[in-house]
Design brief:
single chain; alpha+beta; 11-stranded mixed beta sheet; about 30% helix; globular; Ig-like_fold; hydrolase; SASA
């Protein structure tokens, strides 16, 4: 069993794991064909206006020549069989071209475009496909108009060690393919295409039900203050694994027998199969998805990343305050392109969430980093479905961040954001940024609560006054704190003139 203990030992094991992976690569690439890394396959989009690393494998010492458009560059595979070249920055191009690597053999990636490339990651709401969204049939048919949007779906894979390869393929958007695209990514990319009119590449590495720890490198995890708790949970899971695995074998055997009996008798069988427990190398192992679904694409040239995750960490929201920014910093360091844009989706409203108000707040800690932004979705969730179908608006709100802040096209990209509170005559006046045209979609303006020094929150009356909101309650003579939409599934009627919702907030820092 692999044990994860101190930060020092995990860093050492990480280095040993990387060395083992390279050693294995050297052995397996003896007399190997020249091959591209997984990013460089038919239908790919290369990032415009940046140096573009292109890499792959060959025999150690083999000379490899890479050509694309008018560029030609050479490299020699190192002792581990890895070669790498860098293409000079290119303008966007929708004219298909071939990317060719030639050594003892020739490998060609066809129908390659140059445009904007975004990494799209997270859990099930990023993985959710277009064919499950609102107006799916019309959206899929409409994809015929967007052949310059390309989508790469990384196969769901976890690994205890860093991987050099990944399964997946670039697909051209169209009626026969778009239904299987990440919906949030596709609708985001479609908005970018409409505004920029350049090819869009969407690199989708996402997996439902996954924790942020699995998407982080061992180095980033071991440096985080939450590391002792993270590693202890995993060790506890591993201790419990043998008993869970034994029980699973009994349960799955009984389930198979019951299903066979129902089939024989012509009866309906709706019992779900027992869930196989997670062990070493599973999606729940810290760093396992980073190893298998991020590392193979390093250091591809990308414009930025979008992220749709947090539900699986909501019960441990205090940890997320540091883990999320740490992951962003780590990915930026790994891709080696500075502080690339990173935009994420704040958790939507959901009736069965656990501590989701605090998790939304924890997500907001990432906004302290440069070039970050969030798409607030508190108004477009579904109380009884953790996978809301309106991914069109999710993609649009993510795109507003990118268009305004990455591409400098202007326009409002955020709803009202809490900017302080002041006392006046038994009431609190709440100030906001991004509040031009402040309005409510419910005249009663529900969702606000205030508390006095006793820390007991009660519903408050609220009224809009210019770009502020004044809140009060007869039972709270001396209010000291205000909260808005501070619940798992709250009313959220406050918007700005751009019809973007106010982000949930609180003025206090109390534990509950």
């Amino acid at each position: 069993m692999i044990r994860l203990s101190s930060p020092q030992s995990i860093r050492l094991r990480s280095r040993l794991a990387a060395g083992l992976a390279l050693l294995t690569l050297a052995v397996t690439t003896a007399s190997a064909d020249v091959v591209f890394a997984p990013f460089f396959r038919d239908n790919a989009v290369l990032q415009r206006e940046k140096p573009v690393p292109v890499w792959g494998r060959a025999d150690p010492g083999e000379k490899v020549t890479v050509t694309f458009q008018s560029q030609k560059t050479e490299a020699t595979a190192d002792d581990m069989g890895r070669w790498s070249v860098t293409l000079s920055p290119m303008r966007a191009s929708s004219t298909p071209a071939e990317l060719v690597a030639k050594g003892k053999n020739t490998v060609t990636a066809r129908n390659i475009l140059v445009g904007e490339v975004w990494l799209c990651s997270g859990q099930s709401n990023m993985a959710m496909t277009v064919n499950r969204t609102l107006d799916a049939d019309a959206e899929i048919a409409g994809a015929a108009s967007y052949p310059l949007i390309r989508h790469f779906k990384t196969k769901l894979t976890s690994a205890a060690l860093p991987c050099d390869d990944a399964e997946g393929a670039w697909e051209v958007a169209g009626p026969s393919t778009a239904g299987g695209f990440s919906a949030a990514a596709y609708y985001f990319g479609r908005e970018l295409f409409k505004a920029l009119n350049v090819p869009i590449g969407l690199l989708n590495s996402s997996w439902g039900g996954t924790q942020i720890e699995s998407w982080m490198s061992p180095q980033a995890l071991s440096a985080d203050p939450s590391w002792p708790e993270v590693v202890q949970r995993w060790q506890d899971e591993m201790k419990a694994y043998p008993a869970k695995a034994a029980k699973y074998e009994i349960d799955i055997d009984q389930w198979n027998k019951a299903r066979a009996t129902a089939k024989k008798e012509g009866a309906k069988f709706t019992t779900r199969a027992p869930r196989k427990p997670d062990g070493i190398g599973s999606r729940r192992q810290p760093a396992a998805l980073y190893n298998a679904m991020i590392v193979p694409f390093l250091p591809a040239a990308i414009r930025g990343a979008i992220w749709y995750q947090g539900e699986a960490n909501a019960a441990r929201n205090a940890e997320y305050r540091t883990l999320f920014p740490a992951m962003i910093r780590q990915w930026r360091a790994d891709f080696g392109q500075g502080d690339f844009p990173f935009y994420y989706v704040q958790l939507a409203n959901f009736g069965r969430g656990t501590s989701w108000a605090f998790q939304r707040e924890a997500q907001g800690y990432a906004l302290k980093l440069p070039a970050t932004g969030q798409a607030v979705t508190i108004d477009i969730g579904e109380s009884a479905d953790i996978h809301p179908k309106n991914k069109q608006e999710v993609g649009r709100r993510l795109a507003l961040n990118a268009l305004a802040n990455t591409y400098k096209l202007g326009g409002e990209f955020s709803g009202p954001v809490f900017d302080g509170v002041s006392k006046e005559k038994g009431a609190l006046r709440v100030k906001f940024t991004h509040a031009a045209g402040l309005k409510t979609k419910d005249p009663a303006l529900p969702g606000f609560a205030i508390a006095g020094a006793d820390k007991k929150f009660i519903s408050a009356k609220a009224r809009i006054d210019g770009e502020t909101v004044v809140v009060s309650a007869a039972a709270v003579k001396d209010p000291v704190a205000v909260r808005y939409a501070w619940d798992n599934d709250p009313p959220s009627p406050l918007y700005n003139g751009s019809d973007l919702p106010a982000s949930p907030f609180r003025s206090d820092d109390w534990e509950k």
